[in-house]
Design goal:
The protein starts with 15 loop residues before the first strand and ends with a strand. The strands form five sheets. A five-stranded antiparallel sheet has the order 15-14-13-5-16, with no helix packed on it. A five-stranded antiparallel sheet has the order 9-8-7-11-10, with no helix packed on it. The protein contains no helices and 16 strands. It is globular. It has 169 residues and is an all-beta fold. It has strands spanning 16-18, 23-25, 38-45, 50-57, 62-65, 78-79, 85-91, 95-100, 106-110, 114-117, 120-123, 127-128, 139-146, 149-154, 157-162, 166-168.
Length: 169
């Protein structure tokens, strides 16, 4: 199971090691998730101890932030497998206010991530409604540009900013 599925309110594809639950997962979702990364876990044994190192690859374009943008911290809401079915409660120009059918969670979903199939609405894939604080001259990875907004990764934090804050480098 991709590591992102272990987290309730964030999309996180890093290697997961939970020794209490006896879980080691390196599945970053590559091939099955829109936002993914290819992970490698290196286990070394020096005869006395095991050491763990991990590396990842996430080939996304890098952009630079043009100016500071502070966003007040709010509770994040996530849509994830297998609960992609939604009900649109209010449709706006960029985002729609939706309810996830199986969890009753309410969140704003970017319209490009909503699709209709067999008379039911669904969220395209794992999704988070988090908006990110950014600072001038920071580099971020861009998952995608959607209208006036960009879905980005900043220091492994996934979320949204207005695309006007970005400059391609």
């Amino acid at each position: 199971m991709p590591t992102s599925n272990f987290y309730q309110n964030q999309i996180k594809n890093d290697v997961l090691m939970d020794f209490d639950k006896k879980i080691i997962s390196i599945d970053g979702g590559t091939g099955v998730k829109f936002i993914s990364q290819l992970n490698a876990l290196i286990i070394e044994n020096d005869g006395m101890n095991l050491t763990f190192k991990n590396h990842f690859v996430q080939p996304l374009p890098i952009y630079r932030i043009k100016q500071d943008k502070f966003v007040e911290n709010k509770e994040n809401h996530k849509v994830s497998w297998p609960n992609f079915e939604i009900e649109i409660l209010e449709k706006r120009e960029e985002f729609s206010f939706c309810k996830v059918i199986h969890t009753n969670q309410m969140l704003w979903i970017k319209n490009e991530f909503i699709y209709l199939k067999n008379k039911h609405f669904y969220c395209l894939d794992d999704y988070i409604d988090h908006f990110i604080t950014v600072h001038e001259n920071e580099d971020v990875k861009v998952i995608g540009l959607y209208g006036k907004f960009a879905y980005i990764i900043k220091n492994k934090e996934i979320g949204w900013i207005e695309s006007g804050y970005l400059e391609k480098i």
